[in-house]
NAD(P)/FAD-dependent oxidoreductase
Amino acid sequence: MTTAPEEYDVIVVGAGPTGENVADRTAAAGLRTVVVESELVGGECSYWACMPSKALLRPVAALAGARGVAGAREAVGGALDPAAVLARRDSFTSHWRDDGQVKWLRDTGIELVRGHGRLAGERKVTVEGEDGSERLLTARYAVAVCTGSRPVLPPDVPGLAEARPWTNREATGSPAVPGRLAVVGGGVVGVEMATAWRALGSEVVLLVRGEGLLPRMEPFAGELVAEGLRAAGVDVRFGVSVTAVERVDGGGEVTLVLEDGERLAADEVLYATGRAPRTADVGLEQVGLKPGAWLDVDDSCTVLGVDGDWLYAAGDVNHRALLTHQGKYQARITGAAIVARAQRRPLDTARWGAHAASADSAGAPQVVFTEPEVAAVGLTLEAAERAGLRVTTVDHDLGAVAGASLYGDDYRGKARVVFDLDRQVLVGASFVGPGVAELLHSATVAVVGEVPIDRLWHAVPAYPTISEVWLRLLEGCRG
Ligand SMILES: Cc1cc2nc3c(=O)[nH]c(=O)nc-3n(C[C@H](O)[C@H](O)[C@H](O)COP(=O)(O)OP(=O)(O)OC[C@H]3O[C@@H](n4cnc5c(N)ncnc54)[C@H](O)[C@@H]3O)c2cc1C
Ligand SMILES: NC(=O)c1ccc[n+]([C@@H]2O[C@H](COP(=O)([O-])OP(=O)(O)OC[C@H]3O[C@@H](n4cnc5c(N)ncnc54)[C@H](O)[C@@H]3O)[C@@H](O)[C@H]2O)c1
């Protein structure tokens, strides 16, 4: 039985990083906001994605950092301590409890309704509780769908579902280190998890159907990461397809049958083959949209194809950029748009306006926490050319930078900027090498700020840091 409608100003469905930030913005503006969550407040990112994966990877980088410097190397003879690494990971996920996040909601004045949310018409959401009870919530101004994404398994591999493959949840949450781990997929999850579990002691084989890793990044990123994985002992194989998976009696070892007939045994198999939107059961049919689809939005994150400008979708679910920081950015834009419309103020949706998530396409940064790290922002050369821009690239060997050679002995790495010849600004930058993650924000500011190259010339990097690579890159752009 559905209870009497409960009225709010704003309803947010999904309390991942995106939903939390939409609610934060609208509540801060004085709008009565409720968040609906079916699992844990904090979402995939906090419990089965960013946080646990980076908690697994940070010790790998710390050890590699020490091993890369003579004098420090001698102090670190052993391998990682898996029990300590897993315990640290568990503490970063708060042992998969969301009390801390729930307290934050409460302290911020945001109400929480636990259960499965579904759109039930214009500005209406029903919430099905665990006990089957149903509540009807209505919104005076807006509903934001922030339900995220889930892993996709290829539908055409016999035996896969029965073999209980790992997805990102098991790969980030496993309480034990498998002896042998097969990883399918050469995207970000595949390379990061291959890095982590190999360092924790698993024998790892990485099976990639294409010819390189990280296909959306500059080609040298995938090449250097493949080199790093192989140096760590990962068996990286390209041009390989899995045609069937078998796990006898539902337990024991798993066997992967490859296209050429080879049978590969492992203890676990991780499928890291991409994401699908969590929209199959959120009531999209009630508002004339197709269940299971990514939600198409405009730059203010208002859902296209629904009248009245009351329905928003932000974060993974709109497929603009599947990254926590971009989801939180979209949340800030969405929150501002909801507040402006509630106050009957016009939206500023011009490029880089207060209500336009322009950076999603022009300046979204990403760090891949492998050994070596990859840090990239904006467009690759290929993407810039596809967009019809007249560009040139400047590449530089990071190992030739004084700060890099101090950072680690025999430092290997590479940097590239993509330079727009017509506008004289950078439209993309990529760095690969140990410790490059913290270099990235300088590039993000340059790309998003569209800083003219002649002004960037005056941004002096400190000596002796890896950032001095900027000097060589800018020299190359100025010709
Ligand atoms: C292994 C892995 C590592 C990653 N590492 C990084 C990283 O280092 N950096 C980075 O930027 N990104 C990373 N990502 C991507 C990042 O996790 C996502 O971009 C981010 O979680 C998206 O946030 P979101 O709020 O849109 O969705 P989610 O975090 O998925 O949250 C959605 C929430 O909605 C809830 N929900 C869904 N349906 C309903 C419903 N019907 N009713 C109520 N609640 C519902 C879910 O339970 C969930 O809590 C990683 C992803 C993976 C898989
Ligand atoms: N550090 C980070 O920022 C970080 C870390 C992990 C994940 N993420 C985000 O999460 C998202 C999901 O990551 P992901 O690695 O699952 O997806 P992805 O799209 O990055 O990579 C999936 C890979 O699997 C391959 N693939 C697809 N179907 C296949 C099949 N049937 N057989 C073999 N290979 C197949 C694809 O070609 C692709 O290379 C990404 O978009 C990423 O942005 C970010």
